[in-house]
Amino acid sequence: MRVITAQEIDAVMAPRDLAETMRRAFRTGCIAPQPHHETIERPDGEATASLVIMPSWNDFKAQGSTDKGFIGTKISSVIPENRRKNLPTVMGVYLLQSGKTGEALAVLDGRALTLWRAAATSALASSYLSREDSKRLLMIGAGGLAPLLIAAHCAMRPIEEVLIWNRTTATAASLAKRVKLSGVNIHATDNLQGAVHGADIISCATLSTSPLVLGEWLSEGCHLDLVGANLPHMRECDDRAVQDCRLFVDSYADAFTRAGDIIKPLENNLIARSDVAADLSELCRGTKAGRRFYAQKTLFKSVGTALEDLAAASHVFMRT
């Protein structure tokens, strides 16, 4: 059994290549039971942590064979208190097994795999939902996922300028100095409203529990990519943004049970489930339309699926 480190994962990843692997995976699908979530109570004064187990496997019955494909399981923890220790809030491992024999083939660094698959999924969605001539990207959040999201969006669209906003401006400025992309001007901003209004693509990767992006700030034709805030009590945008945009998700089941940005407007009867136009499988298979016209505002809510993990893990395994 191989152990594949974060450094080895980073070495073989290219955003566009991984997005194409994701596209094929969403077209073919896989078997992915609902993730298993456990709450881990912490001592008084510490935020509640959680344990998440996400299994999946290729649809061997539909394939008619077990000669190709894998079984995979991600085990990850979300510990908000890690931020005080300058540690990642999400850590874990991914176990990849042979679909034919069940043999353990590899254990992969779960955090690196999750970051890459999240970025690639957003890039894949953007290929259907953002305008092809998008030139200005706003990155909200400056954590571990932010540089990969920037690279992924820039790989899919002709981005010329990237603004980075974070609650701590110095953190945004530090990230802006670290990220280097040819032909792209990258800098930090402390004017969130102005940055949102001027952006063609807005990508959010935060653990916010209150809206950061207001619908009244959005310009015509923009694409809003919501990657963080993947629990029911979390929000990255307000209700108006959800109401004003054509809505898309990576998975209906996960979005309706885990995504606060979708759940809250549903609970308040501001939108209906039918207002979610398509999931990524339908977009990739061409059974549902993405962006319909140039001035349309689009919103993609990603919560992360086991299919994405399996696709990313097999992508890495075949290249290391």
UniProtKB/TrEMBL annotation:
Pfam families: OCD_Mu_crystall (PF02423). GO terms for molecular function: oxidoreductase activity. GO terms for biological process: carboxylic acid metabolic process. Signal peptide: none annotated. One of its GO terms (cellular component) is cytoplasm. Coiled coil: none annotated. InterPro entries: NAD(P)-bd_dom_sf, ODC_Mu_crystall, ODC_N. NCBIfam families: PRK06141.1. Belongs to the ornithine cyclodeaminase/mu-crystallin family. This is Ornithine cyclodeaminase. It comes from Pseudovibrio exalbescens.
